[in-house]
Amino acid sequence: MRIAVLTALASVSLVACGQNATSTNNEVAENSANSVEATESAATPAPAPATKEEAMKVMHERHEGMEQIGKSTKTIKRALDSSSPDMAEIQKAAATIAELAAKSPNWFPQGTGPELGKTGAKPEIWQNYPDFVAKDREFGRAAQTFDAVARSGDLSQIKAGFADLGKTCKACHDKYRSDMHH
Amino acid sequence: MKLPIWDLPTRLFHWLLVGLIAFSWWSAEYHYDDLHIWSGMAVLSLLIFRLLWGFFGSSTARFANFVRGPRAVFGYLRGQWRGLGHNPLGALSVIALLGLVSGQTVLGLIASDEDGLMQGPLVNLVSVGTSDAATELHEELFNVLLALIGLHVAAILYYRLRGSA
């Protein structure tokens, strides 16, 4: 029993040491041509979809898109944590995120909040829309940048770009996503 | 002379655990991911201490001295128990609370949020599916833990009001 307990203790301390903080590195140039320029002037949300069905469709697309982004970031995280990261897998997931991120400005028209149906989108999105848009734009920028560095194949730049991307996800989710989003 | 029934390490364990469970809830609720993970690691360390103390600690802290079978529990309920420390029914509560908190820390080690941004340190030892299931359980078991803590506090109030004799 004593040995088992000591082993447990030892493994806990190992785990504690293995927790390394990720650092950001912004030296990656913003070299994306097709970022979300289309929404540059969108300080007000798009008008509500004409019918409830259309609004539900937007919410569905948003949900699926966010889920896909989440799955992709999980895949990348796992790949980066492994001893020999699968570069093709990372590149594919990075491209998926960039593609969906470019669509994300269209996912939040008026009237697609919790008043319509089950969603993790908080009403604050539409109350602070300029701030929300700024955060979404940051996300779009980080996603395009990350896609570009993923294609370059430079592992340290990929790690930095991924940390940067994660921060833009979190900045928005902490403020505008409710915990009832499953 | 008055002797304390529970020794200082056991009391420290108890109150540190109370603080850390509250802190764990707060850090998860307000998205302080790193703090939540460190809080969980601190809880795990406390539990390992308590496990050791349950074998090598002072008399009232040792599991062998208070964990009893169903007969002793029913005997206690009929008023046939004289002793110091945890009574046989209270022992069940201790085991349930320790077990649940242990389960929470282990689940937390392999849990992940839906984006993989906040992950337990051992998440890569299990599949994504297992991690997702552990995460869900980690969230749901917290409510069970709250219920047990409520019962624990209610029992203490009951004994206080009734008098401990």
Task: Kindly describe this structure.
The complex is a heterodimer of chains A (182) and B (165). Chain A has 182 residues and is an all-alpha fold. Chain A has one domain: Cytochrome c/b562 (Four Helix Bundle (Hemerythrin (Met), subunit A)). Chain A has six helices and no strands. Chain A has helices spanning 2-18, 52-81, 87-103, 124-127, 129-152, 155-176. In chain A, helix 2 packs antiparallel against helix 6 and helix 5 packs antiparallel against helix 6 (155-176). Chain A is elongated. Chain B is mainly alpha-helical and 165 residues long. Chain B has one domain (13-56, 87-162). Chain B contains six helices and no strands. Chain B has helices at 8-29, 33-56, 63-66, 70-77, 88-109, 128-162. In chain B, helix 2 (33-56) crosses helix 5 (88-109). The longest helix of chain B has 35 residues, at 128-162. The model of chain B has no long low-confidence stretch (mean pLDDT 92). The A-B interface holds A 1, 5, 8-9, 12, 15-16, 18-19, 21, 67, 69-70, 73-78, 81-82, 166, 169-170, 173-174, 182 and B 31, 33-34, 37, 41, 44-45, 48, 51-52, 55, 109, 112, 114-117, 119, 121-122, 124, 128.
